[in-house]
């Protein structure tokens, strides 16, 4: 069984926090549950899976959400000072995220407990076996460049050096990557080169980080690091929604709301001026993106402002489903898991049908399934550690894949197979209720 997760965003602690103990426990419980359910085969019998491949598809670290970048050294500069600071922030992020790394080490060392099979092909209620877990790490746009092997005794070790992408399965028909190159706000040149910033880098550092730093000075009585984690994971066009949700959740007083909105407008104006010196990489579609984005963000927290971005900005800065599927088709695979895209996106079939297949793909071959790993509507104060599981032939009652959003908290501890759909025949007896 393949399980992919992404966007854990372990920070250095300046303006953001690592995942909470509750988030880590929920992730571990969900991983154990889906590992047990995967043992139910398409013919109804139960046979434990042989291995879990756990792939982290990018952004394990968050090296951008740091106040250290607010000086003269910038992450998009190809200078030794920039590379050194990037490495220092990454090492500090590893140190700050020791609780999360300890969970991964335990999974790698101890595996996952799943029920053994009885002679009747059913899960045993009392006997469990350990399924080994293999860990693979891929790189994203928040965690490059990756720190070199630590030499200090005080520096935490992280044994899984990242790759860019990987394939999985006997036929290598599952492609896993972070996929930031498909997002107009994150696509940029290779790390380590002197280049313009991406929109996410520019907004994340010169707007979000500076906003959180100033807000902490204006409202020192309010803890903001969990709020900072929510903003660090947000797409630039969803920042106003995250801020408004945080205000509503904490029922901020009128004076605090006024202070926050005034601080936000000043920071947007400062970010807009900074783009004149270091212009982000954007596509030119007939509008000045930085001017348009700054104007919309500045007014976005007004009580009468629209919660959604205007169409012209969305068309420029949002990933296009057709472009995503077209890029995946080039890989010639059945399933793609992209850590940078929203959770549950299987791209709608009606949009896939409008995409011209590459000339080497036979017309009868169905378009690939594209799964994302970014939660659609996370809580304002935390970011769910989302995951997607892909099953080999016959596992999990023959399902192809499932996502963490499909597991409710009430069934996390159950290994029972999931029933899809409902009987359409009248008078059907539920065997469990009858028993």
Strand content: 5-15%
Tell how many strands the DSSP assignment holds.
11
Note the run of SSEs as H and E.
EHEHHEEEEEHHHHHHHEHEEEH
Give the biggest sheet: 5 strands, mixed
CA radius of gyration: 23 Å
How much helical structure, as a percent, in the residues? Answer: 25-40%
Helix count, per DSSP? 12
Strand order of the largest sheet: 5-2-1-10-11
Structural class: alpha/beta
Q: What form results from the Cα inertia axes?
A: globular
Distance between the termini: 32 Å
Q: Which ranges are low-confidence, i.e. pLDDT below 50, for 5 or more consecutive residues?
A: 149-156, 348-364, 409-413, 417-435
- Whole-number average pLDDT? 80
Describe the overall structure.
With 435 residues, the protein is of the alpha/beta class. Helix content is 34%, strand content 14%. The chain has twelve helices and eleven strands. It has helices spanning 21-37, 80-96, 98-110, 199-218, 225-232, 239-250, 254-277, 289-299, 311-317, 321-329, 349-352, 431-434; strands at 2-5, 52-57, 112-117, 123-131, 133-138, 165-168, 174-177, 335-342, 369-374, 387-390, 401-403. The strands form three sheets. Strands 5-2-1-10-11 form a five-stranded mixed beta sheet, covered by helices on one side. Strand 6 (165-168) and strand 7 (174-177) form a beta hairpin. The chain is globular. The two termini are 32 Å apart. Residues 149-156, 348-364, 409-413 and 417-435 have low confidence and may be disordered.
């Amino acid at each position: 069984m393949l399980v992919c997760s992404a966007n854990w965003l372990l920070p250095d602690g300046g303006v953001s926090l690592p995942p909470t103990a509750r988030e880590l426990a929920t992730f571990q419980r969900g991983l154990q549950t889906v590992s047990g359910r995967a043992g139910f085969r398409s013919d109804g019998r139960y046979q434990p899976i042989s291995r879990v491949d756990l792939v982290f598809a990018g952004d394990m670290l968050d090296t951008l959400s740091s106040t250290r970048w607010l000086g003269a050294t910038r992450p998009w500069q190809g200078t030794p000072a920039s590379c050194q600071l990037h490495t220092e922030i990454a090492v500090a992020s590893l140190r700050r995220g020791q609780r999360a790394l300890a969970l991964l080490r335990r999974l790698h060392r101890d595996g996952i407990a799943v029920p053994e099979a009885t002679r009747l092909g059913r899960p045993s209620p009392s006997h469990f076996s350990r399924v080994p877990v293999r860990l693979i790490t891929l790189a994203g746009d928040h965690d490059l460049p990756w720190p070199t092997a630590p030499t200090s005794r005080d520096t935490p070790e992280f044994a899984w050096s990242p790759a860019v992408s990987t394939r999985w399965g006997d036929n290598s028909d599952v492609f896993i990557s972070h996929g930031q190159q498909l997002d107009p706000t994150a696509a940029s040149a290779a790390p380590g080169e002197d280049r313009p910033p991406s929109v996410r880098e520019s907004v994340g550092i010169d707007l979000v980080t500076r906003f959180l730093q100033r807000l902490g000075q204006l409202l020192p009585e309010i803890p903001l690091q969990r709020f900072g984690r929510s903003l660090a994971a947000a797409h630039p066009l969803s920042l106003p929604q995250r801020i408004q949700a945080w205000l509503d959740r904490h029922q901020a007083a009128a004076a605090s709301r006024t202070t926050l909105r005034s601080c936000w407008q000043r920071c947007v104006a400062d970010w807009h001026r900074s783009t004149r010196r270091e212009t982000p990489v954007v596509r030119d579609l007939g509008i000045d993106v930085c001017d348009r984005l700054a104007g919309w963000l500045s007014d976005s927290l007004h009580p009468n402002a629209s919660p959604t971005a205007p169409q012209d900005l969305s068309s420029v800065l949002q990933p296009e489903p057709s472009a995503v599927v077209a890029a995946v088709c080039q890989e010639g695979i059945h399933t793609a898991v992209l850590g940078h895209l929203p959770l549950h996106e299987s791209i709608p079939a009606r949009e896939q049908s409008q995409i011209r297949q590459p000339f080497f793909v036979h017309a009868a071959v169905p378009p690939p399934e594209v799964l994302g790993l970014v939660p659609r509507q996370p809580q304002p104060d935390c970011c769910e550690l989302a995951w997607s599981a892909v099953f080999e032939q016959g596992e999990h009652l023959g399902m192809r894949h499932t996502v963490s959003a499909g597991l409710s908290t009430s069934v996390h501890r159950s290994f029972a197979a999931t029933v899809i759909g409902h009987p359409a025949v009248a008078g059907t007896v539920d065997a469990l209720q009858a028993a």
